Amino acid sequence: MTSFHGLLAYPITPLTPDDAPDLDALAALVRGAARAGVDGVVVLASSGAGVTFAPEERDAAVRAAVAAGSAAGSPRVPVHVAVSGASTREVVTRARAARDAGADGLVLAPFSYLPLDEDEVVAVFEALASAVDLPVCYYNRSVQTAYDVTPGALVRLARTTTVTAVKDPAATPARPAGRVAALRAATEGLGVSVGLSGDAAIVGGAEAADAWHTGLAALVPAEYVTLRRARAAGTAPDAQVADWLRALTDVLASLRPVSGFHALATLLGVPTAPPRGPSLPVPSDGVARLREVVARRPGRPTAG
C-alpha cells in the first residue's frame, strides 16, 4: 500500500501580517491533523498556494511540516509536497528540494501555458522519476489544465514512472458515473491508489475511493476523520457532524477556494492573513456566513 491512502489533509500555508509564511501556524495545523487521525498531509498544493512562494519559503514550509509530522506522535504522519510548476525544470527542482527536506512523497498537477497532450504529460512524470525516487500522486486538475487523465494514460504512468496514486475530481462537468471504478479496473495489480478531491462532492456522498484529498480536512480534521471512518466502515456517519460539514462546504463552495480557507482558518483561531494576490480576501458577507456555520460546530472547540 502506498502512503496516498485514507484521508489526506491539505493545509493552507498561513501568512503573517507582513505576508511571510507563518511556520509555527503551519506546524500547528500539521500536528492537529495528525493527532486527529488523518493518514497523511500534503503541503504547498492548491490549498497551500504553493506556486506563490519563493524557493526558500517553500523549503522552510516543507521542513516545518516534516518536523511537525514527526513530532505529532506515533505513528508518524507522512508529509507529501506538491511540486507543480510551469516547466519540467521547475518541477524537478522543487521535487529535489522537497526530497532533501524530508518529504515522503510528491503531488504533481502537470500544467503549462498551453494545454499539454498525453505524451507531454507522461514526459514530465518520466523526468521527475529520473530525478527523484519518491512516490508520486497525479493531481488531475482537468478543468484548470484542459487535460483529463484517461485510464490508459494512468496505466502508462504507473508502469513507466513513480506514480502510485491519482487525485481525481469527484465532480466536474460531464464527469461520467463510475469513474473511480474505471480507474481502479484499468490499474488493477499496479498498486495505484484512486483518490477523490472536492469537499462538497465528498461530503455529499461521492462514490467510494481509496483516498480523500481535501483542504478542509486540515482545518476541521476531527470531523473529517469521523466522516471518513464511518464511510470506510460502511456505517452511517454521525448525523450532526455530517450535516455540519455539508453546511460548511455549501458556504465554501460560494467563495473563492483559497481565500475561503484562509477566512475559515481565522474564524477557527488559526493566525493567518489572507492569501497572496491575485487572490482577494473574502468579502464581509462571506465571512459572516462562515461565522454563522462555525458557531454551530457540534461539540468541538475552535481549533488553532
Automatic annotation (TrEMBL):
<feature type="active site" description="Proton donor/acceptor">
    <location>
        <position position="139"/>
    </location>
</feature>
<dbReference type="InterPro" id="IPR013785">
    <property type="entry name" value="Aldolase_TIM"/>
</dbReference>
<feature type="active site" description="Schiff-base intermediate with substrate">
    <location>
        <position position="167"/>
    </location>
</feature>
<dbReference type="Pfam" id="PF00701">
    <property type="entry name" value="DHDPS"/>
</dbReference>
<protein>
    <recommendedName>
        <fullName>Dihydrodipicolinate synthase family protein</fullName>
    </recommendedName>
</protein>
<dbReference type="InterPro" id="IPR002220">
    <property type="entry name" value="DapA-like"/>
</dbReference>
<keyword id="KW-0456">Lyase</keyword>
<comment type="similarity">
    <text>Belongs to the DapA family.</text>
</comment>
<dbReference type="GO" id="GO:0008840">
    <property type="term" value="F:4-hydroxy-tetrahydrodipicolinate synthase activity"/>
</dbReference>
